[in-house]
Write a structure and sequence with these properties.
By secondary structure, this protein is mainly alpha-helical. Helices cover 64% and strands 6% of the residues. The protein has eleven helices and two strands; from the N terminus they run ααααααααααββα. It has a two-stranded antiparallel sheet with strand order 1-2.
């Protein structure tokens, strides 16, 4: 009888320990939620639930083993975490550094394959509002088809891109999507923090290897400043800078 009582107590103790473990988000779950904060923050109210479903599926890959009832509670924990961190993310949406994950690397390296799978399986076209909710599942299937050596190589690539920089083609895509936002943010912060006015000349290569250039002057929108570009005819410098 004593032995039986001891066994029951031990099982109960393990059960409580497991409950405590599943009640707390793991570091990997939190890292995955953080990687999706920009999509969550920028999503329109009408699209929020679809975006959340995709985020929850992605984070669940890193969750401990749980039953259906625990999964419902965990989804609510995900949603609470996203709402609690939403304001903080909105304060500074510009992040000049980027932590690349294996999932992100696979999408960049196999983007055409991932998009084709999504279109074939769900009929969702690239860029369509419903495409995003199928993205994680498509990337997961591509990852599942990699052998051990290939997956290890992807992890090494993610580390390399995070610590140094991605290849020129990926940089060109980032420039196209975020380059102007980065520059405008820098101009505003230099004025706000240092009361410094800045005029920028920029040059970069697009995905086709063509050199593009531009001039950026936001001074009229900052305080009572005047446009630096209007003080002189800058068209003469364009061909020189383009060279």
């Amino acid at each position: 009888m004593a032995r039986s009582g001891h066994s029951t107590h031990s099982t109960s103790g393990r059960h409580r320990a497991h409950q405590r473990q599943t009640q707390k988000l793991t570091d990997k779950e939190i890292a995955e939620l953080k990687s999706y904060l920009p999509e969550w923050t920028s999503a329109k109210r009408s699209k929020k639930q679809g975006v959340f479903t995709a985020i929850a599926r992605a984070a669940r890959l890193f969750a401990p083993k749980i039953n259906l009832g625990q999964w419902k509670k965990r989804k609510q924990m995900y949603k609470t975490w996203l709402f609690n961190n939403n304001k903080k993310e909105r304060k500074d949406m510009i992040k000049y550094g980027r932590k690349w994950t294996p999932r992100m690397v696979i999408y960049q390296q196999s983007q055409e394959e991932v998009l084709k799978r999504i279109e074939d399986e769900s009929r969702a076209k690239p860029g369509a509002p419903g495409m995003f909710k199928h993205y994680q599942a498509a990337v997961k299937r591509v990852m599942a088809e990699l052998d051990k050596d290939e997956l290890e190589k992807v992890k090494e690539t993610a580390e390399e891109w995070s610590n140094n920089f991605p290849p020129p083609k990926v940089q060109a895509q980032v420039t196209q999507k975020k380059g102007l936002a980065y520059m405008e943010h820098f101009l505003k912060e230099m004025w706000r923090q240092c009361r410094m006015r800045v005029f920028m000349l920029s040059a970069w290569k697009n995905e086709q290897g063509e050199v593009l250039f531009g001039m950026h002057d936001n001074n009229e929108a900052l305080g009572d400043g005047d446009s630096f570009m209007k003080t002189k005819d800058w068209e003469a410098i364009e061909p020189v800078w383009q060279e």
